[in-house]
Design goal:
Layout lengths: L1 E4 L30 H11 L4 H6 L2 H54 L10 E2 L6 H8 L4 E5 L6 E8 L2 E8 L1 H51 L18 H46 L5 H27 L8 E4 H12 L3 E4 L6 E4 L1 H18 L4 E6 L2 E5 L7 H6 L17 H12 L3 E6 L5 E6 L7
Parallel strand pairs: 1-3, 7-9
Antiparallel strand pairs: 2-5, 3-4, 4-5, 6-8, 9-10, 10-12, 11-12
Helix pairs in contact: 3-5, 5-6, 6-7, 7-11, 8-9, 9-11
C-alpha cells in the first residue's frame, strides 16, 4: 500500500533571471561612501523594520516588545509543529478509514458483481479518480491519495480488480472544519501567551526602570551640589543584580566626592583663617611705613591680599552652608538707591522710586550688588547702569559682554573667562551667586542685544510672607 499526495514542482534555480516577484522589496545596493550602519538601517526601513521606532522607546517598552516578539516567534514555531502533527494525524486516520471502506466495497463487489455508488462514494473506473491514483492502481498497487487543494478536500483509496480500478472517496469537510477550529485555538492560545509575556516583561522592566530612574535622579541631585543624596538604603549593599551594583558604585562615588570636597573646603577655610593673623600684623606694619611711592605699593598689595583672604573665608562659609540670612520686608527701590550711592558716582540708577516690597537681607543684597557693580566696572566699558523693575535689579556694563563659556558653565573660581574682561581672581561672581542663593534670589547672566553684559537679580516678593 502506498500513499500519494499532491505537490507542485517549481522550476528555476538561483541562476534564473526574470522579473521580480510582486510584494517583495528590492534590497538597496551598496552605495559608494555610505557607512555600513546607515546602509543596514536603510535596508531595514525598506523592509518595514525601522529600528528607530524601537530606539525611541524607553527601557520598559523595549523589554516588553522584545519579550513579546520572542514569545511570538516561539509560539509560531510551536503552533506550526502542532498544526503539522495534528494534520498528519487527521490525514493518517482519513487514509485508514478510506482503506477500510475500500475493503468493504471490494467485498460487496465480489459478492454482488456491482458497486453501490451510494455506499462511501464507491465507483468502478470513475473518471473523477486523480490521475496519479489511477496509474498506481493500474500498476497493481492499493493506494490512497489525499486531495487538499480543492474547495472540498477528500481522501481517495483505489485498487485494481479484474482489470478495472475500484475506488472510494471520503469527504474531509468535517475534518477541515475541525482543523480550522484547532488552528483558531492555537492562535488564541499563542496570542494569550504573547500578551502574558508582554505584561510580565512590562512589570519586570517597570521595576528595573524605576530603579534606574531613581539612580539618574539621585545622580542629578549630586551634580547640583546635594552631596548627601544616595541611591540605595542600608539593605541594598548586598544586592547581587547589576542595578544594585550600579547604585552602590554611584553611592561610593558620591561619598568619595563629598569627602574630597569637604576636605578641600576645610583646607581653604583653614588656610584663609591662618592667613588673617599675619596679614593683620602686616597691614598694621604697612601703615607705619614713611610716606612715599614704595610704601603706597606695599599698602596696595597688602590690601589686595587681605581682600582675597576675606573672600576665601566667605567662599568657605558659603560652601559649608554656614551663612544664615536676616530676612526683612523692605521696599526695593530706596534700598538699591542707598547701595548705588555707596558704590560710587560712576554708577547710574533708574527706578529708584520703585516701592515693590521684597523679603531679603539688606546686608547680603548689598554684597551681591556691590560685587556685580565691581565686576562690571572692572571688566566692562563706559558707565555702569543699575535699573530696578518690580522685584528685579539689573546691573549692566557696555563692554565686550560675558564669555560664552561663562554663560554656558557659570562662574568658576580663579577664572575670569576671557582676557578682554581684565584680570582678577574670579571670586566676585562666585560670591555674588552664593550670597544670592542664601537670601533666596536668582541671578541670571546674559549679554545685551546691543552689546555689554547684564546681570539680573530677581528677589522673592514679600507677598509670600
Amino acid at each position: 500500500m502506498t500513499a500519494l499526495g499532491q505537490g507542485v514542482r517549481r522550476h528555476g534555480g538561483p541562476g534564473r533571471s526574470g522579473p521580480r516577484r510582486p510584494g517583495l522589496p528590492r534590497l538597496t545596493p551598496r552605495r559608494p561612501g555610505l557607512p555600513r550602519l546607515q546602509l543596514r538601517r536603510l535596508r531595514l526601513r525598506r523592509l518595514g523594520l525601522d529600528p528607530i521606532g524601537l530606539r525611541r522607546l524607553g527601557l520598559r517598552g523595549k523589554i516588553a516588545v522584545l519579550l513579546a516578539v520572542g514569545c511570538a516567534l516561539v509560539a509560531v514555531a510551536i503552533g506550526l509543529l502542532v498544526h503539522q502533527a495534528r494534520l498528519e494525524q487527521v490525514a493518517d486516520g482519513a487514509r485508514a478509514q478510506a482503506l477500510a471502506q475500500l475493503v468493504r466495497v471490494r467485498q460487496v463487489y465480489e459478492l454482488t458483481g456491482h458497486v453501490d455508488e451510494d455506499d462511501a462514494e464507491g465507483a468502478l473506473d470513475s473518471s473523477a479518480v486523480p490521475e496519479p491514483l489511477r496509474h498506481a492502481a493500474l500498476d497493481g498497487r492499493r493506494t490512497t491519495y489525499l486531495d487538499l487543494s480543492s474547495d472540498h478536500p477528500a481522501v481517495w483509496a483505489a485498487r485494481p480488480i479484474g482489470g478495472h480500478v475500484l475506488s472510494v472517496r471520503k469527504p474531509l469537510d468535517e475534518e477541515a472544519r475541525e482543523m480550522a477550529d484547532f488552528d483558531r485555538q492555537l492562535m488564541v492560545s499563542g496570542a494569550g501567551v504573547v500578551a502574558l509575556a508582554a505584561l510580565g516583561g512590562a512589570l519586570l522592566a517597570g521595576r528595573l526602570s524605576r530603579e534606574l530612574r531613581t539612580a539618574a535622579a539621585t545622580a542629578r541631585r549630586i551634580s547640583k551640589g546635594e552631596l548627601d543624596a544616595r541611591i540605595g538604603g542600608p539593605g541594598t549593599a548586598g544586592g547581587r543584580d547589576e542595578v544594585a551594583e550600579l547604585g552602590a558604585a554611584v553611592d561610593t562615588m558620591a561619598a568619595t566626592l563629598q569627602s574630597r570636597l569637604e576636605a578641600e573646603q576645610r583646607f581653604t577655610a583653614d588656610v584663609a583663617h591662618e592667613l588673617r593673623t599675619p596679614l593683620t600684623g602686616l597691614h598694621t606694619a604697612a601703615e607705619l611705613l614713611p610716606p612715599g611711592r614704595p610704601s603706597e605699593l606695599v599698602r596696595d598689595r597688602v590690601r589686595a591680599l587681605r581682600t582675597l583672604t576675606e573672600d576665601l573665608l566667605e567662599v568657605a562659609r558659603l560652601d559649608a552652608e554656614a551663612e544664615r540670612p536676616d530676612l526683612q520686608v523692605r521696599p526695593l527701590g530706596p534700598m538699591v538707591a542707598g547701595i548705588v550711592r555707596r558704590a560710587g558716582e560712576d554708577v547710574g540708577l533708574t527706578g529708584a522710586g520703585e516701592e515693590t516690597p521684597v523679603r531679603t537681607d539688606a546686608r547680603r543684597l548689598e554684597r551681591v550688588l556691590a560685587n556685580l557693580i565691581s565686576n562690571a566696572r572692572r571688566h566692562g566699558g563706559g558707565r555702569v547702569e543699575v535699573s530696578v523693575s518690580g522685584c528685579a535689579v539689573t546691573v549692566r556694563d557696555h563692554g565686550e559682554g560675558f564669555p560664552e563659556r561663562l554663560l554656558r558653565e557659570g562662574p568658576r573660581r580663579f577664572l575670569t573667562g576671557a582676557a578682554e574682561r581684565g584680570q582678577g581672581t574670579g571670586l566676585g561672581l562666585t560670591i555674588a551667586l552664593g550670597q544670592a542663593q542664601v537670601i533666596g534670589a536668582r541671578v541670571r547672566l546674559r549679554n545685551a542685544p546691543d552689546g555689554g553684559a547684564e546681570a539680573e537679580v530677581r528677589l522673592p516678593a514679600a507677598a509670600g510672607d
